[in-house]
């Protein structure tokens, strides 16, 4: 015969039965399903009895009661069911049952409990299948990262293995099915690089039209102003370029963000993977005023002026004059 206190050696289970309101509903079900006896029955829910709650007050916890009766775990939850404040049936059903005589109330609750038990068990099974954090814990093959990448359209097979995969998964909510904005981009960059980052939008660019792009009389193509015909020889564009300002930086970090360096290439990968491929990106590096270094004769320095070395550095303000094109059409 099964021991009534099979959980007595497990402090977590013991605490669960003493204070069930301190646990979540799915968490409680998962803990109690660890009983070895459950593996000998046809379905795990056969050792449970999910009863309906008739409480209409605001739920302060997910569980109302938890008891072990007749070798079954009776569990009343306030999150899902047919009756109660979160129930699928209208409140009037619960109210009528509460006001009915005790014997009739118990009979009706037992009858509704037959349907409520099956529906609640299906809800638990669905939660274990579709709840991503739970899948991450119990799935032996662990496709959790791939599922999160699928939310934002990031296909790992189309990209080389990168240390940025975890960040794309973390910010999948910001990347999911929407146009990128300054807030989303700034949030991710600040988390990845651990630096103060500002992003300026609508940087004006001016393009000079060559002779082949100019409209001339006598052509066979139709000319439409604003589509393929422009007034003047120059075109201004304000929605195709942004400027990323990073800093103030210390001198070692400043060197890592220079063109071709490690952090600069990592920044390029983020924009190439996330943003519009036609977007132009400029990077402006801000060097702390206390880290400005003057040119020294004989010093082993391979950097040019303005890229970390200065003739007569002023120590009263940060240096923010160095700006380079991170992504630009060739």
Q: How would the blueprint of this fold be written?
A:
Blueprint: H1 11-18, H2 25-32, E1 48-51, E2 63-69, E3 72-77, H3 91-99, H4 102-130, H5 132-138, H6 144-151, H7 165-170, H8 172-175, H9 182-193, E4 197-200, E5 205-208, E6 234-237, E7 241-249, H10 251-256, H11 262-274, E8 280-287, E9 293-294, E10 309-310, E11 323-327
Parallel strand pairs: 1-3, 7-8, 9-10
Antiparallel strand pairs: 2-3, 4-7, 5-6, 8-11
Q: Care to describe what's here?
A:
This protein is an alpha/beta fold and 330 residues long. It folds into 2 domains: 11-136, no CATH class; 189-214 and 227-327, no CATH class. It is built from 11 helices and 11 strands. A 4-stranded mixed beta sheet has the order 4-7-8-11. A hairpin with a 2-residue loop joins strand 2 (63-69) and strand 3 (72-77).
